[in-house]
Amino acid sequence: LSLDVSRYTAQTNPTQWGHIVEDINHSVEGGLDANLVRNSTMKEGAADPPSSWSAVTGGGGTGSIALDTSVPLTAANPDALRLDVGQDGAGQRVGVANTGFYGVGVAADTTYTATFFARTARYTGPLRVSLEGADGTVYAAASTGATSGDWRQYTVNLSTGRRKPADTSNRVVISVPAGGSGASLWLDVVRVTPPTYGTSGELRSDLMQKLAATRPGFWRVPGGNYLEGQTLATRFDWKKTVGPYEDRPGHQNDAWGYWSTDQAGLRTYLDMAEQSGAEPLLALFAGYTLDGTTVPQDELQPYVQDALDEIQYAIGATDTPWGAQRAKDGHPAPYDVRYVEVGNEDFFDRTGSYDGYRFPMFYDAIKAAYPQLQVVATTPVTTRTPDVVDEHYYNNDPAAFTAMAHHYEGYSRSGPKVLVGEYAITNGTSGNPTGTLSGAIGEAGFMTGMLRNADVVMGASYAPALADVHDFQWPTNLVGFDAATSYGSPSYWVQQMFGANKGRYVLPASLTGTDPSLSVSATRGDDGTVYVHVVNPTTTAVTTQLRVAGASAISTSGTVSTLTGDPDARNSITAPNTVRPTAARSVTTGARFSRTFPASSVTVLTFSVS
Ligand code: AHR
Prior knowledge:
GO terms for molecular function: alpha-L-arabinofuranosidase activity. It comes from Lapillicoccus jejuensis. The chain is of the alpha/beta class. It is 16% helix and 31% strand. The protein folds into three domains: 112 residues, Golgi alpha-mannosidase II (Immunoglobulin-like), CATH 2.60.40; 315 residues, TIM Barrel; 150 residues, Galactose-binding domain-like (Jelly Rolls). The protein contains ten helices and 34 strands. α5 crosses α6 and α9 runs parallel beside α10. The radius of gyration is 26 Å and the shape is globular. Alpha-L-arabinofuranose (AHR) binds next to loops.
């Protein structure tokens, strides 16, 4: 393995490795949105009584629940949950319970915040909010102030103690205390969250921590098919996702088959990127939906204006209308958006409208208003020259990705840059939404090629990022989670090995005398640290001499970390650490040293040069 540290062939990009987050597999609704309560606005499936909710009675008490639209909280949220208390039960409460997203995670020594709108009839007094086990064990409880006949928002903090439930079969309960016989209670926009990540107020900590630990440079948000929707009515209509939660109507996420409250709206998507130290790469709806609808040319202008308004929301000054709305939503500073993407996978539009008029109309308007922005096309176009073209690669054969380690070598250096906005092995299996080590090794081979060709590939994001292990629509994802915990797949660890070990300069590196399926990439940081990634997809360990040329001094020790194991092994929610990289350990380095790269492995080796 030869390395030359005296020169570089390309500079890596701040955006080299990133994430795409759209609402698929409950990535956001029930995932990154930390709200424990499912169907918090009572609209899911238009069910009566609202789904995920049930009446709670005890001691012979009676009560029933229903969907009630006769006392709207707001125009956007007219659907309320109504509890009619019959008899309170021998000194016990009557209430409603929510079973969350496939359970409710309750942690020890944690303070949860509950906020919701409520009104009552034939009862004025406090409501009791609690986190309870299926057996009725109360882990935390608190009472609101007195209710009245008017809608009011209530906020209480619920602190758990040392005891924590054994599983996620818990529920959130809101109840009318004893003495409420004959009362009615209406509830809407119910949120119960543990402490959240950063300052956004919505983001689930363990998921954000995992994604941030890969040191992403960008987040491509909000999709993906989710951006498009099946129809114009069900696209990501960003203006309906900002402002107070109670004024957001939500929408049927018919790209992936569940209700989205849009409580995690545009600001939250931008926050995800910013709060993990990355820049948002903002995907704009471009007049094409998954059912094949294309907005005609003479009707497209309002959608172009919508995209300009969206960019203004993200980066406009606070004296612009949408910049002011962003400030009202709690984020006065503009987000650091440098790239916007026009649409998603418009190669599926067979009418030619993308190249014909949709891309040009968006491109011209964006460049005129925001000349500093780089515009990404979702497929090659001829009518304009995009700054970047987005390419997507899915394959269930790891060897296909291994072979792509040289894919970008023949690309033009003078054309648009490439964003690999989605790629992943799709070798998932039923019951487990994450893939195998062999899949991750294939992806790692592809990543060495993308890194060696960083002058062409400005960024890449594995897709999808997140999946609820109880309800996923895509077979193979980066991180699996349930209501309580989460785990990284082997692919996740590969992302981290590359993301957290990246220098600024791409060094010439080559492997000779080894199986051609092995691949290598090397980068050097400004501080002289050299990062070498070696991917061995074969079933044989390979020992090779590393020869480092072009340095006046080379450290005599460095570090090595290796991801290896059974190529068919996966991680899971119950066995999260089956495949994990070894902790970095010290190794001897120098101008020449020998290293063995195990069968089925990804290795990151570091040392320093001057
Ligand atoms: O990543 C899953 C889906 O794959 C995306 O929503 C879409 O862009 C692609 O087809």
